[in-house]
Amino acid sequence: MALDILLNHRSIRKYKDKKIDGDLLQRIFDAGCRASTTGNMQVYSIINTSDIKIKQKLAPAHFNQPMALHAPNVVTFCADFNRFNKWCRLNNAEPGYDNFLSFITAAIDALLVAQNVCVAAEAEGLGICYIGTTTYNADKIIEVLNLPKGVVPITTVTIGWPDEMPKQTERLPLEAIVHEDIYSDYSEADIKRLYKEKETLEVNTQFVKENAKETLAQVFTDVRYKKADNEHFSEGLLKVLKDQGFM
Amino acid sequence: MALDILLNHRSIRKYKDKKIDGDLLQRIFDAGCRASTTGNMQVYSIINTSDIKIKQKLAPAHFNQPMALHAPNVVTFCADFNRFNKWCRLNNAEPGYDNFLSFITAAIDALLVAQNVCVAAEAEGLGICYIGTTTYNADKIIEVLNLPKGVVPITTVTIGWPDEMPKQTERLPLEAIVHEDIYSDYSEADIKRLYKEKETLEVNTQFVKENAKETLAQVFTDVRYKKADNEHFSEGLLKVLKDQGFM
């Protein structure tokens, strides 16, 4: 049942040394591309990298996370107006997609396809892991993957046959996420109640200790997702949008 | 089989006059929230609007598309750092997420959940349709849904029991979308070949006639997604990012 596939998701970072059959990948990409797309423009591209030489070149952009190298397939999902713009120009139509809204439109398209590809892969018994570094080092990825103007990488997924079955990570209770009718902002008491289980999980208290921090939140703000890094990568990403013709 | 659910997707714009059971919706949102999320931060919120008065206020932001009013549930997916920031501040941690990268991170989170929710809904026999206007009129949606600083609506999905079974829309051949190892840019001949089937489909030649245009591409550039509109909405969206604290 499809809901079970979604409910059983865990990120798989260790893969068997076994290729993914080409036909299977095609079926997965095919199912992925049935995702909704703005005006049926399909303003996205999928770069399916399995060549070890290209993976080696890509790996530094992903901070050399082992899975970026050892997964049989490293799949980069891109916002792509290049193809659509070329089609317009060949058809006596002047494209007006060199702006921020068009980038967001294409990024949305690419991300819906990415998630569909992940669901399809998991339905076929494969394991997947998103790599969040794609937007940090988009400039380097553009260089390695030879992405022309109009194309911006937005996320990357490693895919392969699972060689681990990690525990699922926790999620906040649904009442923390879902608002009825309009947004109801959180009081201090709400926040404390909604994050309590997360904070007290052993895996998380352990994480705080390992990082020598006082609170779990500090692990995020001071170690994992720091303001200075976020600002540095924001600047880089905005420059990429400009260079690729979206600003 | 899950692949079939993906392969059978079509956007459903007409719904039966029948509520969605609350337990069913919870199951769907629960499955949706198993989607991958950056560092397990879950920087998104889901606004589930079923109150007709709120739907009526929202509808103009969606250009009064009938489904935005008649779907039993209009679900707005938001990039949300508000909750996370509050949690940080309550835990002696100074959040550094008032920047563009953090907005993109949260938008990616929200979109993966949105697509998972859509797959889950379709697996349960419901019909869904994405509304692309969310990023056009984010300011109006923020007002109606009472979204605080740190929250930006990124996409909207209408959900309900299907009252139509439209034909599937066409997709480009997979070779138009998937690149092996690195991006291979398109020659004129490639573009002509890859778009030929799309251009010659009766539904599309009809569309060109109805719009009194020469080519299908012109329907996009001159009627559906015009440069002036894109630039106008780009400005609006960038202002929203600034106002909501992401620039």
Model description:
2 copies of one chain form a homodimer. The first copy, chain A, has 247 residues and is an alpha+beta fold. Chain A has a domain at 2-167: NADH Oxidase (3-Layer(aba) Sandwich), CATH 3.40.109. Helix content of chain A is 49%, strand content 13%. Chain A has helices at residues 2-7, 22-32, 52-58, 66-70, 82-90, 100-123, 138-145, 174-177, 188-200, 202-210, 216-224, 227-243, and strands at 44-49, 73-80, 127-131, 151-160, 178-180. The longest helix of chain A is centred in the middle third of the chain and has 24 residues, at 100-123. Chain A is globular, with a radius of gyration of 20 Å. At the A-B interface, helix 1, helix 2, strand 1, helix 5 and helix 6 of A face helix 1, helix 2, strand 1, helix 5 and helix 6 of B.
User: Which blocks of ≥5 consecutive residues of chain A have pLDDT under 50?
Assistant: none
Which strand order does the major sheet of chain A show? 1-2-4-3
Which oligomeric state applies?
Answer: homodimer
Helix proportion range of chain A: 40-55%
How do the helices and strands follow one another from N- to C-terminus of chain A? HHEHHEHHEHEHEHHHH
What is the name of the CATH topology of the domain at 2-167 in chain A? NADH Oxidase
